[in-house]
Design a protein that fits this description.
- With 319 residues, the protein is α/β, with parallel strands linked by helices.
- Strand 4, helix 3 and strand 5 form a beta-alpha-beta unit.
- The chain has 3 domains: 110 residues, Cobalt-precorrin-4 Transmethylase, domain 1 (3-Layer(aba) Sandwich), CATH 3.40.1010.20; 85 residues, Rossmann fold, CATH 3.40.50.11270; 85 residues, 3-Layer(aba) Sandwich (Cobalt-precorrin-4 Transmethylase, domain 1).
- The N and C termini lie far apart (65 Å).
- The protein is built from 10 helices and 12 strands.
- A 5-stranded parallel beta sheet has the order 10-9-11-1-12, sandwiched between helices.
- Helix 8 runs parallel beside helix 9.
- The protein binds 4-oxopentyl trihydrogen diphosphate and FE3-S4 cluster.
- The site of 4-oxopentyl trihydrogen diphosphate has 18 residues, from helix 1 and helix 9.
- The site of FE3-S4 cluster has 15 residues, from helix 1, helix 4 and helix 8.
Length: 319
């Protein structure tokens, strides 16, 4: 029996960003140089497939540093960043800490710190409880940063008279939702200080841009990624808002409910910044078993960002 035809539009850019490549490479390099166990605080990136693969190679994932026994084994901080108390505790316990925080998150940490030093109260636009938000809030003393999640939060802000304000953001937010919140902040506080350059990172922006372009052209969209991945959830939202009738965020091909994809003629596929390309391929292969697929890449931006490994893991300079 012949298979029905299916056009697949593959969003580009999709999948791994430079910060994720660096964080995963850091764990692999530490395993190679120091041997297992290599402790990792929190999922190195929010993808269970990545975490399970590293675990099989000898990485030990922990929620907090108190689960790391004393000794020389490295402990790596995840790409999402950590509150200041974490490296402080590592130093106090003489642990061998390696920081795999994405440099673009560290940039936001430094911005917040500079605002604080200049006497400004900092507003952080982000999602409560997300590890990146916990890390950024933890750069400053309690009370120095106020989290803003919604327009209602903007309305509720009550800065002290004469208090200068500045805002920073989580790196993986919806570009559109954030623009609305920033406009509301500027309307209420015309003097508020903005980041020099967007805090939403290039990878988040570019992946959302590609989905925005592709979602209106397809009958269904698959976002490859984990449920706990903020940037992947935002890709799902963008596709839904563009009116795509069926949008699913899935980790593996085995998560596909095939009944839902019965009548489609054109499928869009993208992947969050923490989702490996091998999972995109697995999903395309699963569709190829059921459909006669024709795959076309739709590129809306070029990327060439690269971050070197954390200092502790770089090869010594030659000569
Ligand atoms: O927070 C980050 C620096 C992004 C890391 C890569 O993505 P992921 O899925 O691990 O994390 P998010 O939940 O922040 O998107
Ligand atoms: Fe960094 Fe953005 Fe990736 S902040 S880890 S480049 S999603």
């Amino acid at each position: 029996m012949s298979k029905p035809p299916l056009d697949v539009l593959l969003c580009a850019p999709r999948g791994f960003c430079a910060g994720v490549v660096r964080a995963i490479d850091a764990v692999e390099k530490a395993l190679e140089v120091y041997g297992p166990p290599v402790y990792v605080r929190h999922e190195i990136v929010h993808n269970r497939y990545v975490v399970d693969s590293l675990r099989r190679k000898g990485a030990v994932f922990v929620a907090e540093l108190d689960e790391v026994p004393p000794g020389d084994a490295p402990v790596i901080f995840s790409a999402h960043g950590v509150p200041k108390s974490v490296p402080q505790e590592a130093l106090h316990r003489r642990l061998f800490a390696i920081d795999a925080t994405c440099p673009l998150v560290t940039k936001v940490h430094r911005e917040a710190e500079i605002h604080h030093k200049r006497g400004r109260h900092v507003l952080l636009i982000g999602h409560a409880g997300h590890p990146e938000v916990v890390g950024t809030m933890g750069q400053l003393p309690p009370g120095a940063i106020t989290l803003v999640e919604t327009l209602a939060d903007v309305g509720r802000l009550l800065p002290a008279p004469g208090q200068e304000l500045a805002y920073v953001t989580q790196t993986t937010l919806s570009v559109e939702d954030t623009a609305v919140l920033v406009a509301a902040l500027k309307a209420r506080f015309p003097g508020i200080i903005s980041p020099h350059k967007e805090d939403i990172c290039y990878a988040t922006t570019n992946r959302q841009g590609a989905v925005k372009h592709v979602a209106p052209l397809v009958d269904a969209m698959i976002v490859v990624g984990s449920n706990n991945s903020s940037n992947s959830q935002r890709l799902r939202e963008v596709a839904e808002r563009e009116g795509c009738p069926l949008v699913r965020l899935i980790l593996r091909a085995s998560d596909i409910n095939w009944d839902e994809f019965d009548d489609i003629r054109c499928l869009g596929v993208t992947a969050g910044a923490s989702a490996p390309e091998v999972l995109v391929e697995e999903i395309l292969d699963a569709f190829a078993e059921r459909y006669d697929i024709r795959v076309e890449s739709v590129s809306t931006a070029d990327e060439s960002v690269f971050f070197p490994l954390p200092r502790e893991l770089r090869e010594p300079a030659a000569g």
